[in-house]
Amino acid sequence: MAAAAAAAAAALRAWFWNERFWLPHNVTWADLAGEPGPPGSGLQYPRAGHVLSAFPLALGIFAVRLLFERFIAKPCAINLGIQDSGPHRAQPNAILEKVFTSITKSPDGKRLEGLSKQLDWDVRKIQRWFRHRRNQDKPTTLTKFCESMWRFTFYLSIFFYGIRFLWTAPWFWDTRQCWYNYPFQDFLIMFVHHLATIGLITFSYMNNMVRVGTLVLCLHDASDFLLEAAKLANYAKYQRLCDAFFMLFGVVFIVTRLGIYPFWILNTTLFESWELIGPYPSWWLFNGLLITLQMLHIIWSYLIIRTAYKALMRGKVSKDDRSDVESSSEEEDMTSNSTKGVFSTSSNGSNRINGHVASGQWTEEE
To answer: Could you report the per-residue pLDDT of 227-265, keeping only the tens digit for each?
Structure first.
């Protein structure tokens, strides 16, 4: 039984790591097992096992984030007058609390009518209770400020870190260099940069598309820190600065994602690589993912332009339809469009996809 399981596992590994899928013709995994430099240099080509080092690195970065938010971001927020007070808490009620925790957080009309009769409360009062109760689980403005300040610092740092090393890399100025002698290329100076953004570059790392991977990463880092700067200004109630950063973010985002990305990145991955190394199975997968990303760029750019246009028409960035703090009364609902910014995020950063803003982030409340 054990022998059969081992044989099945070996067959699965052989199928998954098929050289003719992952590598160009006439290249094998054994070719990548040697040293790319002089004997004894200690240099290595990428190997699948290297990805495991991302886990301790991620833990280290998480620890740095906790320290940064507590000892740097939080004092900055307090100095700017941002309070740690949460939203208004709901009136304690055992029946409504049981419905909220066990059945639904947003009861429909039929359930509201039933609760109204059971409690002898007005339906609108019950609706307000559920709004208050939902808001209790939302992060405070101070928490969101600290998270955005961390992301701003991280994105800005990693962007300039990438620029620092790519500036002297030949493939930064001539993308054809990404494919000369592929996949026998030294990857050492980009190793840390790759691990820091492991979710985006796992594929390119596995089959040693390191050079073009660094270009993709650096390009996408160019606008992210501007978004976080806009959020910081919004939380600190510097509305004009917030709007200015948002507009700048939109311009950089569109220029990089609709201009540089298709005419620089996709040009080299689709055409220059075809000319220099030719297509192979994983080449189609890699370019399919990049083209899918470009389609997302188009959607996000449209939503950003729409939000920016409406902001210009109204003189202020409008509210996101997923605002973290819901209005607690009908009067607040009527005025919320003029008091809340577009820059909201969940406490776990769930509105981001590979470092990018999710499309719903820019959808304005109709």
So the answer is: 889 999 998 989 889 989 998 999 999 999 999 999 999
Has residue 119 got a pLDDT over 60? yes
Q: Running DSSP on this structure, what letter comes out for residue 88?
A: P
Q: Are 289 and 311 in contact (CB under 8 A)?
A: no
pLDDT of residue 4: 84
Instruction: Retrieve residue 17's tokens.
Output: 């790591």
- 284 or 54, which is more confident? 284
Q: What are phi and psi of 175, to 5 degrees?
A: -65, -15
Quote the CA–CA distance of 281 and 33 in Å, as a whole number. Answer: 21
State phi, psi for 320 to the nearest 5 degrees: -75, 140
Looking up tokens 């059969």, which residue turns up?
4
Could you tell me the end-to-end alpha-carbon distance of the chain, in angstroms, rounded to an integer?
Answer: 62
Cα–Cα nearest to 47, from 212, 205, 164: 205
Within 169-209, where are the H helices?
170-173, 191-196, 198-206
Residues in the chain: 366
Interatomic CA distance for residues 186 and 299, integer angstroms? 36
Query: Could you give the CA distance from residue 33 to residue 158 in angstroms, rounded to a whole number?
Result: 30
Distance CA 291, CA 270 (A): 10
- Within 10 angstroms of residue 5's Cβ, the number of other Cβ atoms is 9
Instruction: Output DSSP code: residue 33.
Output: G
Task: Give the pLDDT of residue 40.
Answer: 65
Q: Is the pLDDT of residue 337 over 80?
A: no
Specify the amino acid at residue 280: Y
Place of tokens 């301790």: 56
What's the chain's average pLDDT? 76
Rg, Å, the chain Cα set: 25
Of 81, 184, 93, give the one whose Cα is nearest residue 130.
Answer: 93
Q: Say what the pTM is.
A: 0.54
Count CB-CB contacts under 10 A for residue 178. 26
